[in-house]
Amino acid sequence: VLAIWHQLTKAEIPELAKCSVLMRDRSRVEDTIGAMQRAGAGRLQVISDFDMTLTRFAHNGKRVPTTHNILGHRLLIDEDCSKKIRELLNTYYPIEIDAGRTAEDKLPLMVEWWTQVHELLIQQRIRKDLLAQAVKESSAMLREGYKVFFDRLTEQQVPLLIFSAGVGDVLEEVIRQNNVFHPNVHIISNYMDFDQTGVLRAFKGQLIHTFNKREGALSHASGLRVLQGRPNVLLLGDSLGDLTMADGVSEHQNILTIGFLNDQMDERKELYVKSFDVVLVKDETMEVPNAILKCIT
Ligand code: TMP
Ligand code: MG
C-alpha cells in the first residue's frame, strides 16, 4: 500500500535525473512537486530573479550582459564611465559570489557597489528614448526555453514575479523585445526616475541589491494582490540572496527553490546544495524549470 501511495504522490520528472541536477533530498523535491500538482495552477505563483537566472550567464564562451552592463553601451554613457563601471564589477562581483564570506559581511559592500554605479549613471544623464536601442544592440539573452516558460505561465494564468536587483527599465525592455512581457508578469526592481525631458535624474524608491531582497519582499511583494491566495511558490535564483524573495508570502504551503550555479562551481556547490532544493550546475537552459512547471500545471 505504501508503495502505491508513493507512486501517487511523487512526481516523476525525467529531467531531474540529468547529471547537471543536484539535490540534497530528491524525495522531498518529488513530494513537494506532487503536492503542488494536486493543488493546481490556481494555487501557484512563480518568483524569479532576473540577471543570470532568466538571462543566460554566458553564450559561446562570452559573458552575457546584466541589465546594469547593458547600460554600458556607448549610446548611453561615455567610455570613461563605462570603464569605471567595469572596474567596479571586477572589484565587487567576486565579493558577491565569494563562498567564504557571509551575507552580512557582503551587504555593506553591495550597497557601496550599487550606489557608486547608480551615481555614475545619473552623472551621464542617460536618455530614456535611447534605452530600447541600447538593449537591441546588446548581447542580452534569455535562457534557452524561455518562451515555453513565460508562455506556459501566461496560459495557466500563474503570476510571475520578477524580483531583480538590476535595472527595471532595462529588464522590461529585454522581455518586451523577446515578446514575453505578458500581463501576468509583475516586476520589482530598481527603476529609473527621468525628468520631464527624459533624462535620468535618480533611481526610484529603496535600493534593491543582491542581499536585501527580503526587505523588498516584505514591503512590496507581500502587498501584491495578484499573488494572494497562492500559497505554493516556485522560486528561481542564482544567488543565495535570492532565497529570501519569497519571504513576503504569507501562509505559504509549499516552496520549491531552484538555484542556477553559474560560476565558482567547485567552491559553491556544497553551499548551493545545502541552500536550494534543486541546483542546476552550468545549465544555460530552462529545461528543468519547464519540466517541473509542466508537471504542476
Ligand atoms: P539580479 O537581482 O536580477 O540578479 O541583478 C543583480 C545582478 O546584477 C548581480 O548579480 C550583480 C549584477 N550587477 C552587475 O552586473 N553590474 C553592476 O554594476 C551591478 C551594480 C550589479
Ligand atoms: Mg541574479
Topology, pairings included?
Layout: H1 2-9, E1 21-23, H2 26-39, E2 44-48, E3 58-59, E4 62-63, H3 67-70, H4 79-96, H5 103-123, H6 131-136, H7 146-155, E5 160-167, H8 168-177, E6 185-190, E7 192-194, E8 200-203, H9 213-219, E9 232-237, E10 254-261, H10 265-275, E11 278-281, H11 287-296
Parallel strand pairs: 2-5, 2-9, 5-6, 9-10, 10-11
Antiparallel strand pairs: 1-11, 3-4, 7-8
Helix pairs in contact: 4-5, 7-11
Structural notes for this entry:
This protein is an alpha/beta fold and about 300 residues long. Helix content is about 40%, strand content about 15%. It has helices at about 1-10, 25-40, 65-70, 80-95, 105-125, 130-135, 145-155, 170-175, 215-220, 265-275, 285-295; strands spanning about 20-25, 45-50, 60, 60-65, 160-165, 185-190, 190-195, 200-205, 230-235, 255-260, 280. The strands form three sheets. The chain has a seven-stranded mixed β-sheet with strand order 1-11-10-9-2-5-6, with helices on both faces. A two-stranded antiparallel ribbon has the order 3-4. The chain has a two-stranded antiparallel sheet with strand order 7-8. A hairpin with a 5-residue loop joins strand 7 and strand 8. Helix 4 (about 80-95) packs antiparallel against helix 5 (about 105-125) and helix 7 packs parallel to helix 11 (about 285-295). It is globular. The chain starts with a helix and ends with a helix. The structure holds thymidine-5'-phosphate and magnesium ion. Thymidine-5'-phosphate binds near residues 69, 96 and 117.
